[in-house]
């Protein structure tokens, strides 16, 4: 069976990726660009306390090369 993805808001995602060494490098409107020193990059759309859609969260997790459990 596949891995279950958590339900997260954008602020939850930012908290996790910041702890993992990502740094905010730019913003265009509500979309923030986060980079890691090793070259990984993710875009996080900041839309208040709304949950991030599952497909978007999966893309962020894969782009950050983190495990879904890191977001629990």
Overview of this protein structure:
- This protein is α+β, with helices and mostly antiparallel strands and 72 residues long.
- The protein has one domain: Metal Transport, Frataxin, Chain A.
- 29% of the residues lie in helices and 22% in strands.
- It contains two helices and three strands, in the order αβββα.
- Strands 1-2-3 form a three-stranded antiparallel β-sheet.
- It is globular and about 30 Å long.
- The two termini are 19 Å apart.
Per-chain topology:
Blueprint: H1 10-19, E1 23-28, E2 31-35, E3 41-45, H2 54-64
User: Based on CA inertia axes, which overall geometry fits?
Assistant: globular
Element-by-element helix/strand order: HEEEH
Mean pLDDT across all amino acids: 92
Within the largest sheet, what's the order of strands?
A: 1-2-3
Which range does the strand content fall in?
A: 15-25%
**What is the level 1 CATH name?**
Alpha Beta
The low-confidence runs, each spanning 5 or more residues with pLDDT under 50, are none
Let me know the largest β-sheet. 3 strands, antiparallel
CATH topology: Metal Transport, Frataxin, Chain A
The CATH architecture can be given as 2-Layer Sandwich
Query: What is the CA-atom radius of gyration, in angstroms?
Result: 11 Å
Secondary structure tally: strands? 3
Helix content, binned percent: 25-40%
Number of helices: 2
Question: How many separate domains make up the residues?
Answer: 1
Helix and strand content put the structural class at alpha+beta
Name given to the CATH homologous superfamily: Hypothetical protein
Termini separation: 19 Å
């Amino acid at each position: 069976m596949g891995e279950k993805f958590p339900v997260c808001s954008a602020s939850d995602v930012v908290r996790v990726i910041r702890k993992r060494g990502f740094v905010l490098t730019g913003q265009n409107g509500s979309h923030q660009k986060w980079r890691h020193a090793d070259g990984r990059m993710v875009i996080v759309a900041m839309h208040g306390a709304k949950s991030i859609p599952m497909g978007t969260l999966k893309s962020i997790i894969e782009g950050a090369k983190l495990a879904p459990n890191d977001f629990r």
